[in-house]
Design brief:
This protein is an alpha+beta fold. It folds into 4 domains: 83 residues, no CATH class; 89 residues, no CATH class; 72 residues, Ubiquitin-like (UB roll) (Roll); 98 residues, no CATH class. 21% of the residues lie in helices and 40% in strands. Strands 1, 2, 4, 5, 6, 8, 10, 12, 13, 14, 17, 18, 20 and 22 form a 14-stranded mixed β-sheet that branches. Strands 9, 11, 15 and 16 form a 4-stranded antiparallel β-sheet that branches. The protein has a two-stranded antiparallel ribbon with strand order 3-7.
């Protein structure tokens, strides 16, 4: 005959009929188990907030119920242990509810956010939920000089899309359904700032360009009435200049300062020709005058000299008489033609803008 000696506490439990705690999980998220509750002692039930489901998913606690009561929500978190005080005066049944979660991993940038955010404050999301990834389109590396620009993205490396260039500061991906592990990969490029200044400090061009990009730039000059400003020098640029246009290869942050010189060509054309014409008209009216200038030249002599100069432009052969018919009209026509030709030349050379050209042309 074999005799067993039982521990005193076990004998007491058997004699008094010890209480039990049964723990189970909805959808078999974890194995069920039962433990005996010691009499007149506090019992603390402990359960991890999250645990592995398989290689790409996990379970996360969302609620519990005691003895068939209503579910009691559990504050969602990814790490740590949930604890619950259990009374030991009777047996109890605890059922845990869980959510299946999948991770959403983002690479290519460290500056991103999820919309909506993860219920567990990380990059794991409940099954079948929809999530968008938000990223700033640019990240400053060196203020006003160098930045990183997001140019495209891909999902699970199966298909990629370009990110449109517009006036928005952020890119928001289309909703991603979390029914599996997903990977979002952002591509980017380094950009440098190109700034073009006039010599008085006015910014004419300021934009960002990718490394190695060739940028055509037209330097516009402001005109002060009939005094034109012609591009004379570009500080910070050592390439060729074609008119007012240059091509810049961007391989680093660059500032170019445009310097201009005054051009009085249009002013001279518009003022000198009318003076000559006025001289001719005045000369015709007073050419019979006996007034004489120093050296013996009379007004008539000067008027005739001016007339000959102008008539040389109007009459191609020497057989034409000194005074041609409609003389005044032809002088005026010649003046207008000369001014228009000068304006056309200045406009074609891009010395004056289109708007200035049209305005001066209308006044002729």
């Amino acid at each position: 005959m074999i005799f067993f000696t039982l521990p005193d506490n076990l004998v007491v439990a058997q004699m008094s009929g010890s209480s039990k705690l049964s723990v189970s999980f909805e959808n078999n998220a974890a194995p069920s188990y039962t433990v005996s509750l010691p009499t007149n002692e506090k019992h603390v039930l402990s359960q991890d907030y999250s645990w592995v489901r398989d290689d790409t998913s996990r379970y996360n606690l969302i609620s519990f119920s005691i003895d068939g009561g209503d579910p009691i929500p559990i504050s969602r978190t990814a790490r740590g242990t949930f604890t619950l005080d259990i009374s030991t005066d009777s047996s109890h049944n605890v059922i845990f509810s869980t959510a299946t979660q999948f991770p959403l991993t983002v690479i290519g940038t460290d500056d991103y956010s999820f919309m909506p955010s993860s219920p567990t404050s990380d990059n794991w999301f409940d099954a079948n939920s929809e999530v968008s990834v938000t990223v700033p389109k640019s990240r400053t590396i060196e203020k006003n000089k160098v930045r990183q620009e997001i140019t495209g993205w891909s999902l699970d490396r199966n298909e990629s899309w370009n990110i449109p260039k517009d006036n928005t500061n952020f890119f928001i991906s289309p909703p991603i359904t979390m029914n599996d592990f997903h990977l979002v990969d952002f591509s980017s490029t380094t950009q440098f700032k190109l700034t073009v200044l006039s010599e008085n400090g006015e910014i004419q061009e300021s934009s960002w360009y990718a490394d190695g990009e060739v940028v055509p730039i037209t330097i516009s000059s402001s005109n002060d009435g009939l005094i034109l400003y012609t591009l004379s020098e570009l500080d910070g640029y050592d390439g060729e200049i074609s008119g007012n246009t240059i091509e810049v290869t961007v391989n680093g942050p660059l500032t170019i300062t445009a310097k201009f010189e005054k051009n009085y060509g249009l002013l001279a054309s518009v003022i000198i020709i009318p003076i000559v014409i006025v001289g001719v008209f005045v000369g015709k009216k007073v050419k019979n005058s006996k007034f004489r200038f120093g050296g013996g030249a009379s007004v008539e002599d000067i008027a005739q000299t001016v007339e000959k100069v102008m008539e040389t432009k109007l009459v191609e052969t020497s057989t034409v008489s000194k005074y041609v018919e409609n003389y005044d009209e032809q002088i005026s026509e010649y003046y207008s033609t000369q001014v228009l030709e000068k304006l056309e030349s200045l406009h074609n050379s891009k010395i004056i803008s289109d708007s200035k050209y049209e305005k001066l042309k209308e006044n002729q």
